[in-house]
């Protein structure tokens, strides 16, 4: 028995095996990475609003039925594609000091990747404000998981005695990190770089937390 593709799918797309409700077909990590790369490529070319599942299906040689079954819709697919570009789990970085952890996280992306991600996130930031489904997907797959990971990093710093548990800046570390990343382009008209973010961490983030930088 075959399952019809969602309305509007190309008639040439191959039929997919029907699955029980709530189940998803399995794809290999390599295929998943390929799909996410294609999605991000399309996002950079046309932006979120003009991105269609038809275009993703054509670019990745997939059927729309597969895409909808695996990701549910465009918002979830885009959020997970962006999440996939993150270099590992924040909470897994443990150098033995908060400064070392924040520097290691910054060095996980080179300057070229930062410039590409900065441009991508500027476009998505505008789309988030007019697309509640994209905002929800970003909160579920990016914002809340990353905030939880940062809390793990900060809790380790508290446990080591580097940061006081009642320091009010603890709740704003993510805000500071994202703010520095975004403000580099807005204020200085330059892309964020490792050198800039490392100096920003030492000059702004760590002093706010009461952590020495020497």
Give the secondary structure arrangement, pairings included.
Elements: E1 2-3, E2 16-17, H1 29-46, H2 53-60, H3 64-71, H4 74-84, H5 98-107, H6 111-130, H7 132-159, H8 173-188, H9 194-209
Antiparallel strand pairs: 1-2
Helix pairs in contact: 1-2, 1-4, 4-7, 5-9, 6-7, 8-9
Structural notes for this entry:
By secondary structure, the chain is mainly alpha-helical. 63% of the residues lie in helices and 2% in strands. The protein starts with a strand and ends in a 5-residue tail after the last helix.
Sequence of secondary-structure elements = EEHHHHHHHHH
What's the β-strand tally? 2
Shape: elongated
* Through-space gap between termini: 66 Å
Give a quick account of the main beta sheet: strands, pairing sense, barrel closure.
2 strands, antiparallel
Strand content: under 5%
Overall mean pLDDT: 84
Total DSSP helices: 9
Reading side by side through the largest sheet, how are the strands ordered? 1-2
> What structural class is derived from the secondary structure elements?
mainly alpha
- The radius of gyration computed from the alpha-carbon positions, rounded to a whole number of angstroms, is 20 Å
Query: What is the helical fraction, as a range of percent?
Result: 55-70%
Low-confidence residue ranges: 1-24
